[in-house]
From TrEMBL:
Protein name (record): Sulfatase
UniProt keyword terms in alphabetical order: Membrane, Transmembrane, Transmembrane helix
Transmembrane segments: 129-147, 159-177, 184-202, 237-259, 280-303
Biased composition (Low complexity): 39-60, 81-101
Organism listed in the record: Streptomyces ortus
Region listing for Disordered, in residue ranges: 1-124
InterPro entries, per the entry: Alkaline_phosphatase_core_sf
Amino acid sequence: MPEAAPPADSTPPQKATTPAEQPNPPAEQPNPSADGPNPSAAGAGTPADTADTPIATPSTTEDEEAPAEKTEPALAEAPISAGEEASADASKGASAAAGEGASVGGEGAADVPPASRGWRARHPGAGRSVTWTVTSLAALLVLFALLMPNDPDRFRPAVFLRLPVEAIFGAAVLMVLPKTLRLITAVLAGLSLGAMTVLNLLDLGFNEFLGRGFNVVLDWVLFDDARTYLEDSMGKAGAVGVVVAVIVLVIAVFALMALSVVRLANLLARQSGRATRATLVAGTVWVACSALGVQFAGVQFAARSTAGAVQNRVDRVQATLKDEAEFAKIAKKDTFAKTPPDQLVPDLRGKDVIFAFIESYGRSAIEDPIMAPGVDATLDEKTAELTEAGYAAKSGWLTSATYGGSSWLGHSTFLSGLWISNQARYRTVTAGEHLTLTGAFQRTGDWRTVGIMPGVQKSWPEGSFYGLDNVYDSRELGYKGPKFSWSTMPDQYALSAYQRLEHGKKRDKPLMSEIILTSSHQPWAPIPKTIPWDEVGDGSVYKDIQKEGKKASDVFYDSTKVKEEYGKSIQYSVTSLIDYVVKYGDKNTVLVFLGDHQPLARVSGDHANRDVPVSIVAHDKSVLDKIDDWGWTDGIKPDHTAPVWRMDSFRDRFLTAYGSTPHP
């Protein structure tokens, strides 16, 4: 047995010996010879079976004692610590007990004062509890990553009660690898799971806001737009806080996933026998359940979701690259590419034509039971006002190329006659010379073409692609009032500025204008109020209105309130536009207005269509006579049964209806 640790006031311990050399307790020692050393004084004894062996006396030379000094040099200086004991045990194959938080035992452990031992040694029960808790959390985190769906509709408890084949395969691989290679593989596997988790989270966000998954090739550019949106909605400090939180979350996901897989890999190596049997059983169960199609709560029990997700992403990348090449060829073809200027829209000569987009004005605004009553009442009221002022209108439906956001994709689809459903297509078409609807008016030389873009807050080179002689962005409209969440200014002010800067001036040409109205942009709080036109001024009047409005945080996360406020924002935008036409329009005014896309799923509903209303308003009856064969509904509220066209078909239909001659 080892000697007890000396009391604090005792002399330093004598030179220790190895277990093989450890003597029996003094009480069991035979009496030494009269001239031999005192065993208790020397700190050593002679085993019973070596009693006849000569015993070293104090006269023994240094050379004779040297081998003993070389055998245990460190032990001569201090007692063996708990950490050194664990290391020694690990080298002898006892790492499993030490790794699971067992108390340090074995020879020499009693020499360590309790206060100097690790907390696991002092509290072995708590140590084991913490160890198994951390290990269990690591296993749960890995299983969550393997089973996590990327669609909000599939987030159900049953999804996380499946058996993932990737876990079985990964365990089998890690168990057979040597230590170093196992560590490297575990780290790489953890980082891969972290990447899949982050991509799945991005898919969830994109599905919620844009109705589609994250495109790993094209969508990185949207993060800058997201940051800008956060700054506009929450202020710079709030946006910085969100960005920092997101970065920390991403780093934490990668780090925790890697550490979790490494921990589980080490456990598999320590418990290789049990792990092998468990893996074989799990593999057999998975194969049987997969072959029999066993389901639990309507979900396939044998899961391979991670492998399927990886394959899906690879397929999407390949499809994106292929689509980009194919679209470049499509964009070069144009039915009206070589149409002479005098053969473009001849039936609209002399008309002031306005193409206006109302942000997020989707079909749900007219049909959803929460939003529809208010919106429909406004559309009916404004139709009556138009009729009283001598105007008429027809309306139908267009299917947008985007959903929930990315408004520029809807704008470019409508104006170019091409299906611009992603950023790659947008870059391709705007870098080319494809004729746009607005560009057709510029090509004739008979119109002055302008753009009113309150949502543009930096240089916008696409203006030349759209054929606009002059673009007024948010910095050039003279607004001195507050922002309304993301929207830089109320729609009524933007239209008032348009009247002041362009439409109200004397001109030698009619105007063709593209106007983007932004007050109906999410998060739909606060919302401006309609005021008398002569009070709009430089926008300072909106300061009190903005302060009295609701906070975005009180609206956006409440499914009912957000629908109500969205509906009110559409009512405001439509009211501003129609009031402008009634007040400032004349017999030559032609208005084409539409929504660019449906609002996000929280408002439009899960799996909502992508339809948006489109209307043509004119004072001259002959303008609407040209589209009699379209089958559209009278007024600015399209009937539920009105025709639905793809948005990219509108350009050619419009140009043809107003006399343009195709020349491919």
